[in-house]
Amino acid sequence: MKAPVNRIIPFSNVDGPGNRTSIFFQGCPFQCLYCHNPETIHACIHCGECVKTCPVNALEMIDGKVVWHKDICVDCDTCLKTCQHLSSPKVEMKSVEDLLAVIRPIKPYIRGITVSGGECMVHADFLLELFKAVKPMGLTCLIDSNGAYDFSKYEELMEVCDGVMLDVKASDPAFHQELVHFDNAPVIKNLHYLLEKNKLQEIRTVLLPFHEEQNERTVRYVAQTIKDKVLYKLLRYRPFGVREEGLEKIGRNITTLEQAEKMRQIALELGAEQTVVI
Amino acid sequence: MEDVLKIVTDTSLTYQQQLLALAHVAENMDHTIPLSDEYVQAMKDNIICTLGEGNLPYRPRYIIPDYSILMEKGSKFLELNPPKDLWEACNSLLIMYRHVPSITSFPVYLGDLDKLLEPFVQQVSREEAKKCLGLFLLNIDRTLTDSFVHADIGPKDTLTGRLLLELTEEMQLAIPNLSLKYDPELTSPEFAELCAKCMMKTAKPSFANHRMFESEWGKDYAIASCYNGLTLGGGGFTLHRLRLYEMSLKANSVDQFLNETLPYYEKLMADAMNDRIKFIVEQSAFFKSNFLATEGFVKVENFTGMFGMVGLAECCNHLLGIEDPAKGFGNNKEADELGVRIVKQMQDFVNNYTADYCDACDHHFRLHAQVGLDSDGREDSPGCRIPIGVEPPMFEHIEHSTLFHKYFPTGIGDIFNFEETWEKTPGALVDIIKGALANGMRYFSGYLANNDVVRVTGYLVKKSELAKLDAHQQSLNQVSVNGKGARDNSDALSRRLERVNESAR
Known about the structure:
- The structure holds two protein chains of two kinds.
- Helices cover 33% and strands 22% of the residues of chain A.
- By secondary structure, chain A is an alpha/beta fold.
- In chain A, helix 3 runs parallel beside helix 4 and helix 8 (212-226) packs parallel to helix 10 (257-269).
- The longest helix of chain A is centred in the last third of the chain and has 15 residues, at 212-226.
- The mean pLDDT of chain A is 95.
- Chain B is built from 20 helices and 15 strands.
- In chain B, the strands form four sheets. In chain B, strands 3-4-5-12-11-15 form a six-stranded mixed beta sheet.
- Mean pLDDT of chain B is 92; it is low at 501-505.
- The interface between A and B is medium-sized, with 35 and 25 residues.
């Protein structure tokens, strides 16, 4: 079994407790307007546009497929800017053993791994195999998810997984649909399910600069649900890396600290004591 | 006498700095210690460097007094009785520090402060202890004005250690340099995290691999100056260094370098070090009459000679014909393997060379990866370090360091530059350090890129002090000038920044 991996970050201090290795899988059912790495959303369709713009000829069309020459690549990301399909030519198919070979030497430096994306639950079967192999190494396994897939249907994975870091992007169904082009019913269901199962590692909500009312609705909903049980991270929207469509609809401003702090106060008043602004 | 006039009229030197420079001129007028023609030529070729020791040593380079004697017995020469409380203990230490010489004339080791002071700290309230230790640190920063002044804490979690960390953060002082003797079994996770947090705020303490040092030096060891491992109650007689890049220019091939060039210069340097050590022990007054020796704060048998080197990266790259540093040592297996061969050869050399005195290491010198001088420029990177600007990502960088650290008991270390998110995650930082030390790293330093106190090569400076020198004003810290040189000549403040890219959320 193999899965498409967009990127591996050996040392990450922002993907769960302690130092962790983060593995980013390709593919996502959401299309968030503010996505900071939209190149993880779709699989490559091998149109070959990026081959033409690569300044160092690290991309080549072989038998109708775009091939990435890692050794030549200088990571200038011109290909990602060229791609019109929210994808990347640098995605590699990896087996569980391939990933273990990466993790083994890093193991002394980390507490665990975090799988992310894209939406890593697209590859839930692969994650199960990966976690089964990683857990005996004494490492914890966290899932970073947008909540599109119903976790209650993945019992075995839930048993081996140490926790889920769940995005709750909006509690208002219509606004969620507009923001990410996907229904939020499974997200809300997951929020309650994971809380009950004691598998919620943390929740994140991105606060938008010009949608204070929506920000507040979501923050209130989450805070009332989780109370003091879970870490709640309020992330300020930052326009860096956001594609044009998103900039037009959400704006080019950073959500101010004052706006974020106001939301944190609301969450605190509702009993979500572990609320922090990032 | 041009030098003398230049020193006396230099407005950027403080009085103390002038005094030291003048002493240096005087010392260099003597030629009692014989130097061979070959050795003099090697100095001219910039292959052997004595790191400013001067011609006629009147004290060992690094002195590691056993301050516990001061705590227990006081000092006859200093007319100090054993201290009875924290104020007396700090006062006695401050008095003694002024009488501990070194190559810089400032003490390079202030003691394992937590062990020395904890019994006294326990006698008073937290507030009183903090006030006293705060004044103690302030006094050190303003009177021992040299960043090679170094104190140790750990491995155990103590109130003294915690107070020193709190004060270090609050006071933002470059002096003293600070090491945590870290052992994951003995150091509590909370204390390690406090140290990591402090490191992100003030570039100290560094984490020293307690198990590794203890296995080589026994339990009574100290970390002094930049990161030098030495025996408590002893020290380092002398430190000379081989500049490997310049040396590599004398060889036509890797084989010639390893079989002829390196052994030739190793022997030259070792013989010269041995002559100096004999002079220090047999003729200079220090071991005969200095109260440190006569009262047992140091013993001649606890000293060793430090056999230094710099420029391994540039040496390997040159020998292998690699012109682009980004494709060389640190990023190239062949160059790294050659580096290990060279260092192993150096270790064999010191193990087979019998030195006079140096009882602390069974009559052998010990290797030292020297942190460089401000005048080194970009030709010789410090010790075994990867040239600044071509460091690989942190994981590979650390793994590279672990190839070399075990060969250097008298000191080697690497420095990592973090971006601001790490300040909020000291636990993640400790995870990395713990892994690095478990994998064989000896000494780990880190700092936050945008802080005022930053680590240059092994010592700390304040960027605000460098700005004073840029404006031709005096800096109280005599090391600021080294920091300015290292920044200007060696890009020492431009090392790779460890970032974690924000993922999609």
